[in-house]
Amino acid sequence: MSSPRIVFDGAQSIVDLTHVLTPQFPLWPGSCPFEMRAVASITTGSAFYLNELRMEEHSGTHVDAPAHAAADGITVEQIPVADLIAPIAVVDISTRATSDNDALLTRADILDWESRHGHLPERCIVAMNSGWDARVATPGAFSNQDALGVQRTPGFDPEAVDFLVHERNIVAIGSDTLSIDAGRSVTYGAHLNALGAGKYGVEALANLSRIPASGATVMVGAPTHAGGSGGPARVLALF
């Protein structure tokens, strides 16, 4: 199947769906912190300004390549470029997530979205908007760990992901949390169902409430380091 031709003529708005990555940005518990070390500075006599970066691949707003959860999955540099520019469908569960930190995006939510906006676009990205991006600046609120260290954060119901990969034509799923799975999950069904089917994930998205539920197109600036399981990405929405 050929990919649809994406036309940007007439786009009136561009929204950055990317968080700024700093040493304070929340990471998956146990991850190595993001570090930036100065290598050269114009103010101290160098001709150029230069830093050295140290981070885990899944830091900040980032891509999960299929290989992240599937032994035979493609690595990040192998994601087809046609899949990195795609329509985005934003499924809003933020009202439910306000009172239920463990809220799941379900198959019923997807069907409700379709009743309002029509069938999911071909080769689209389906993104969960739980309103979680508003928590980034509050220490501890984004990972939201309970007394036992379990993250209480929203995510995709694995059955909803199974529906998307088998009954709809998507290229990826995305979330505004640290994981496309609910934080409490220990089986990672959303990851296994999506990445195992050759789809990629985009996690820790920002500003999903600033783009329409339907009608926007996203450009996912995935990294291209050979053999990578994913990596930080600049994600832009146009509509």
What do you see in this structure?
This protein has a single domain, classed as Glucose Oxidase, domain 1. It is of the alpha/beta class and 239 residues long. The strands form three sheets. It has a nine-stranded mixed sheet with strand order 1-13-11-5-7-9-10-4-12. Strands 2-3 form a two-stranded antiparallel ribbon. The protein has helices at 94-99, 107-117, 158-167, 189-195, and strands at 14-16, 35-40, 50-54, 62-64, 85-92, 104-105, 124-129, 155-156, 170-175, 200-203, 216-221, 230-232, 234-238. The chain is globular and about 60 Å long.
Please summarize what this structure is.
By secondary structure, the protein is an alpha/beta fold. The protein is 14% helix and 25% strand.
